[in-house]
Amino acid sequence: MRYSETHKAETRERVLKEAAKEIRAKGPDNVAVAGVMARAGLTHGGFYAHFPSKDALVKDAIGAMFADARARTERIDADGNPRTVLRAYVDFYLSTKHRDSRDRGCPLPTLSGDFARSQPATRERFGAGVEGIASRLAAPLAKLGYADAAAESHALLAQLVGGVALARAVGDPALSDAMLADTHASIVARYGLDTTQ
To answer: Residue 32 sits in which domain range?
Structure first.
C-alpha cells in the first residue's frame, strides 16, 4: 500500500518528536534509534525511509525542539510593547514551571553541555536555535534603546540559561527557588521591567 506525502511528513514529525524527547532525557549521544522508532509506532527498519543516519535524526530533532519551544512562547511576541514582551519572556523562562519541564522547556539549559561535544553539523543546528532565541530577545531590546541589541541579547540569554541550568542542578529546593528568584530580580532591575512602578 502506498502512503501519501502527507502521511510520510506526519510520520517523520512523529519520529522527530520522539527523538527530541529522548535527546532531552538522555542527551544526543545516547539516542537509541530502535527505541525512538518503537515509541513512534514504527519498526526500526523504517528509519532509513526518513533519515539517512542517526546524526541526521539528531540534527533535525534539534530543529524540532527549538520549533516546539518557540510555538509555546508565540503569544509573548504578540504584544507590541517591548517592556511587556521582555518581562513576559523573563517571567516564563525563570518560572518554576519552566525549571521543572526539562522534557518540554527550552533545550538550552538541559543540553548546552552535551552539544558542545557534538558533530559540527549538529552544533551548527544547535547554534542556529540559540541565535533564533537571541534574535527574539534582541528585538524588544532594540526598541528599548540598546545600541548593540544583539550583544545585549546574548548576555541576557546566557543569564537566563545559566539561572535555569543551576536551579535544575542543585539538590536543595529552597536554593533552586532562590536562584530563579534572584536571577529574575536582577534582570528585571537591569532592564527596568518592574511593572508595579
So the answer is: 5-53
